[in-house]
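Handout, page 2. Input:
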Amino acid sequence: MTRLVRTGEDLPELLAAIARTVSDSLAFRTVVVNLYRREWDDFVVTTVYGSDEAREALLGDVRQVSDWEPLLDQRFLQRGAYLVPQGEFDWENHLGSYMPDLPVSDDPNAWHPDDALFAPMRGADGQLLGIVSVDEPISGRKPSGDEIDVLVGVSEHAALAVHAAQEAGRARANREALERLLAVSASLNSSSDTHELLQHVCAAISEALGFEKVAVQLLGDQGFHRTVAAVGFAEGENNGTPITADQLERLLAPQFDVGGCFLIEHEDARRLLPERPAGYRSERDGRGPHAWKNNWLFVPLDDRRGRRIGYIWADDPVDRLKPDAERLQILRAFANQATTALEQASQFEEIQNANAHHRALIDASPVAIVDFELDGRVRAWNAGATEMFGWKPEEAIGRLNPTVPEGEVDFFVANMKRIALGETFRDLDVRRLHRDGSQIDCSISAGPVRDGHGAVTGAIALMIDVTARKRSERALLASEGRKDAVLRASLDCAVIVDHEGLVTEVNPATEETFGWTRADAVGKPFLDLVAPEHREDLGEIFATGSSPLLGAPLEIAALRSDHRTFPAEVAITRVDMTGELLFAISLRDVTKRRDREERLREAEAKYRTLVEQIPLATYIKEAGMPVRMRYMSPQIERMLGYPVSDWLKPDFFLTRVHLDDYERVLAEIERTHNGGADFRCEYRLVGADGEPVWVLDETVAVRDAEYRPLFFQGFLVDVTDRRRGANEPELVSVLDFDG
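Output:
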């Protein structure tokens, strides 16, 4: 087998030699080689060494990867091979299987007709190249561990031989392609006809690299590519609508670049060009991760100055596989030959000469100057334009002006039409796009370019970047607008004071609160106007710009215009900015808050005095679950024996509910706490002495202005005597919440 690796035979002969060697050296009558096909992602029986019946049953049989997965299961793995014993696999439902005519023995070590042995052939990278299947051992017995080791070793060498043969085949094909490339290069001087030269290149690519369809498409006058040479297409065959220069640039994204060729998955291409109608559909698709699946393969053509002039399109590979990097490098070399053919053509030279004077003029300008076709495509792009917008000349030329935002394309095209009629624009303020997607404010002057007869042949545009100036103007306007809006919208008093303590700005809330107008306040000392009693406390802030009181909320006695004082909360913050030091002062009238707090304290005192004198226990509960008592009156201790502090613990109340009443009470409590409904229920609570106490419990929700429950108020009344009538003893059961 080692010698076979070195023979360099073609793959069919090599596989036959492998099968014969395995049979002769390991004593199996039947040896089958299943070769992995990358273009279909399956296995095909290429070689059968054995009886005519075996060859007739198996040769050419195709199995999917999924067909082999149950056979190559770990439960069958023995020393690197897969031994499938009789009864472990259903061969009747397995297509293409061969069952040798062998006697069945009771000896457990005898080979059974349903036994099978497989040895995988893996390449150096671990990829499965094929599977060797052996059957009908001459000994009639199952192979020993040593015999399996030999089979695995032979299969590993066979894999090397297969890999070497496959690599040799690819190398031979690439060598022949390079020889054809040299022949094309030698023939370029035989003709000056562009079509003939490019047709020769297309034919060479098709024959040397195995693509049934090849076309060369060049950029035309209207921004669309047109086919100038092609092979493999039938007359009238749909090869898609022409691709525009802009569409081509979208397809030539860096992630698809393989050595100067762009290999694109069909789904990616459709995503990049959603507006393009369906075109040519590949006829040589395969299956699996390595297969060609209606891929798009483009090779861009650039002239000697780096301008994009067209592309080569190749499709329908004969081998149904995506080309590897080496084949793409050869394809790139063929594309270079196509560019050379165009360079030698007189038509291409005339195009270069016609644009030479435009380029000289534009390249000499120190500012951004762009020369346009009348349809808006860039014809020339100088260094100033590159510096301003980021696009290099080769990226911009031939495309519709890449700096125009998507929403302004119609406006741009309309202006180009006006220029075509002889109109000139001066100092037009517009926004344009940088290559990185950011926007640039531009001042543009544009006018027509005329030929020697006075006819308009294009447009020239001078562009100046005014982004910094516009940004400053917008920032100033926005800042002023935000400041005014914030000051006017604030419900609190807002006052701006300079470093001398003089008022520079007030908002409407300040005027309303203090009773004087902005004109009355601006220019006056803030402390004299608002807080004369706090000159010493607050004066240090304005004098030094720093103080422990800076930024801290303070309560002061503020002075109204009618000389009445009121309690106010004030906070002074320093505004750090270029120029003189400023202070922002926020004031809030807290008179109503003080009154509410005082009334609340009085009400709470009255409530406590009242509820603690009546013969029932009152309580306040938090809204929501679990049950949390905010307040419980002292009467509860006389009623049940537990101190008030216990009832304020979360869910303590539920631990005292009699077990027989627990589910009913809990359901009612949840209904009340979740929906805010009133609660009225009689049930038993277990006292500290273990005795049940019947209580009447009534609860109502205290709601806010929007009718949402804030908390619950209620009372508990001992109704034991009424419920029991006569004092009959009762068995008490309490939920054990302590486990």
